[in-house]
Each structure stands twice: as C-alpha cells, then as structure tokens.
Amino acid sequence: MEKYIVYKKKFKVCDYDDDTIKIDFEESKIKDNGNVKKETIEEKNKKKHIGGKEADGTKRANRRNITKKGQFSKKLFIEYRYKELYLSFPIHVMASVLDLNIDNIIDEYELSYKNFNDNFVEEITQHINEQLKEYEEKIKEHVNILKQTTDINNKVSENREQLKTLNEKIESTRQLLQTERDRLETEAGHCKDLEVEVNKLQDMVNKNQMELTQVSKESKKSMQKLKKEIDLFKNGVKKFEQYLQLSMNIENNNEQFAVVTVSMKNTKNRSNYNIVIEDNNNDYKIIDIAPRDEKASKATELYYQTKDIQGMLAFLYMTKE
Description:
Layout: E1 4-8, E2 11-16, E3 20-25, E4 28-32, E5 35-39, H1 41-47, E6 63-67, E7 77-81, E8 84-90, H2 91-98, H3 102-244, E9 246-252, E10 257-266, E11 271-280, E12 283-290, H4 294-306, H5 309-318
Antiparallel strand pairs: 1-8, 2-3, 3-6, 4-5, 7-8, 9-10, 10-11, 11-12
Helix pairs in contact: 4-5
Coiled coil: 121-218
Organism: Cinara cedri
Region (Disordered): 43-64
C-alpha cells in the first residue's frame, strides 16, 4: 500500500482546470540531516530549476505546473478544511519534489501520533470516566427528583380531581342558591305588592270601620229615637183610639223599619179605612189605603205635601163623604 503525506498551509492554488493544477510554494521549514534549515522560495526555485523571466521580461513566479496526466495522475487530492488548504501526495513523489527525508518525518510523525493518540485516549478515558461518574450522580439525583416529582404530580392530580369535584359541587350549589335567590326575590316582590294591598285594605278597613262606627252610633241614636217616637206614637194612638175608636197594629221587621197598620171607624161620618204605613227613621211612607177613594187620594197627596201623618189621619177621620 502506497503511503501519503499531507502538508498544511505550504501550498497555494493559483489556478486549475481539468488537466492542470497550478500551485505556489511558500516558505517552510524542512529537515536536512536532523537540522532545521530555512529555505526561501528563490533557493527552492533555483534548486528545482524553477525561475527565470516571462516572455514580457517580468520575473517568473515560483510556480510549478503539475499535470494530472504525468507522475501525479494516480494520487493527487486537494482538500479544504476550515478554509485551509491540504494537499495529499504519494510519499515518493514528495521526496523527489521537495527533497525531504521522508523516513525521519514518518518516524517522528508515527511516534508523535502514537504519543498523541495514547495521551488523547487516556485523557478521553479519564474525561469519560469523570463524566460518567458525574452523570451517574446526576442520574441518581434526577431519579430522586423524578420520583419526588411523580409523587407530587400524583398528589397534584388527586388534588386536582378533588378540586374538580368541589368545583362541581360549588357550581351546583351556586345554581341552587341562584334559583332560590330568584325565587326569594320574586316572593319578595309579591310580598311588597301584598304589603301595598294590605295597606290599602287596612286603610279601607279603617275607613269603613270609622264609617260603620259612625253609622252604628247614628243607627243606635236613630233606633233609640225611633223607639221613643214609637212609644210616644203608641201612647198617642192609644189615646187617639179611645177618642176616635181606632185600632192600630205595629210590626217591626228589622231595626230600621216598622210597618204600622191603622184601622179607623167613624160612625158619625161613616169613615172606615185601613191604612198601612212604613216608618223609616221618622220618614213615613204610605203603603196602602183601603178603600182607595177620592178622599184617600187627597189624604195621600196632603201627606206628601205636609209630611204630617197625624193630619192625614185626622183628615180621613173627620172629612165627610
């Protein structure tokens, strides 16, 4: 297997096409028999017979054309990493082109690579172990926290369910209270209306009570007066009967009205009448006079003109036919 060597930042690509890559060699440190020798670009060009002037007389650049069809056609790679140029060539090509001691470079490179690799592996292993230990502690802590969080979440879920149940009960109770409140407000409105009606009725009752009291007082006075007048009238009638040969019958239908029936006979003038009178608090009303003749009509007309019941009776008794 053919070996390769990679040089970093030692070449600059000036131009390239499908067949040719043009590069410039920069100043670099090259080992010569174990000693470090600085080789300038001009010395390197002279050593490799590169230089001279261009056709126009200007100094030719330290440029070398590498043709892919030539000795580099099999293994030639250009890689760009982090904006830095890498060229990979076969080792025997680099040895012939750059005149380097490739074996020393390879030994140093392999030793350096081995030391670097061992140190790197050890450092990485130690770092990984530390990280694993730290991760294990963090995992344990996280597991404990996760367990506590799980317990807390379970309690929170349980409390959330209880809170949901309580909220449902509170909402149901609130709806019931709102319904009851609406009903009470409606009842309160009815009560206010009833209170107004009661006040009105109470006023009416008080007014009617006062009127009834007044009427009762007046009725009692009227009844007392009526009884006195009836008694006086009875006494007068009795005396008048004795004188006129009258017969009288008085009927009390109620406390306010009385019906008086008077029968008169006068043998001298042949007067014989039956008179029915209604007494309403000294307001006499002729109910009937029999027989109904011209004298009875005149007596009735005379009574309504004078309101004198005794005069009417005297007219009937004394007037001749």
